Amino acid sequence: YLSMEAKFYPNLEENYFFDHVHIYPSEQVGLHEQITWEISYIITGAGQRTMGDRIEYFSSGEVILIPPDLVHAWDFDASITDKKGKIENITLILTLSFLEKLKNTFSEFDEAITFLKNLDSAVSFKDSILKELQIVMKRMIHESEIERIASIFKILELISNREGQRVVGKAVSN
After folding, report:
1. pTM recorded for the entire structure
2. Among 28, 99, 102, 125, which has the highest number of CB atoms less than 10 A from its own CB?
């Protein structure tokens, strides 16, 4: 497997990693897993995704939360792109050290972080939670590092709401 940390996140002592890409479908990272939490927002593009034990179709607008150690990949359809032939997505990576710092500093994050640490499957979001996540994540493109931390606080609040979730893949047992 391709390690996401080796490609995108060399320093796990950092709090988070934010990546906004506008790339050709063939440039997307292949099958991989990581030891961090990943929140991916597909702005433009569609195709087939592998999430642990599931293979299913995805489309523009989806936001997926992927827990650590879940093998996953996005296989974008090269015919579903923008006018330049590119896809666009946002990836937010949260480290365990960052989540523990938040939990130790702000008791208000206890429920959200406990939820994340117990998550064993990827989840997608729907309805009002999805719409709010899309707005917050797209706004992060133009935010400063400090503003992004405030946006991460909002994202943690939103993703801990179990009402707006659907399981999209569990880890494959050995």
Report:
1. 0.87
2. 125
- Beta-strand relationship, 2-3 and 16-23: unpaired
Low-confidence spans in the chain with pLDDT less than 70: 1-13, 162-174
Instruction: Give the Cα separation of 174 and 161 in Å (integer).
Output: 30
Closest alpha carbon to 125 in 162, 154, 99: 162
Q: Please give, one letter per residue, the 3-state secondary structure of the chain.
A: CEEHHHHHCCCCCCCEEEEEEEECHHHCCCCEECCCEEEEEEEECCEEEEECCEEEEECCCCEEEECCCCCEEEEECCCCCCCCCCEEEEEEEECHHHHHHHHHHCHHHHHHHHHHHHCCEEEEECHHHHHHHHHHHHHHCCCCHHHHHHHHHHHHHHHCCHHHEEEEEECCCC
Integer-rounded Cα radius of gyration of the chain: 15
**What's the pLDDT score for residue 167?**
67
Question: What pLDDT is stored for residue 3 in this prediction?
Answer: 41
Q: Based on the number of CB atoms within 10 Å of its own CB, is 169 exposed (0-12), middle (13-18) or buried (19 or more)?
A: buried
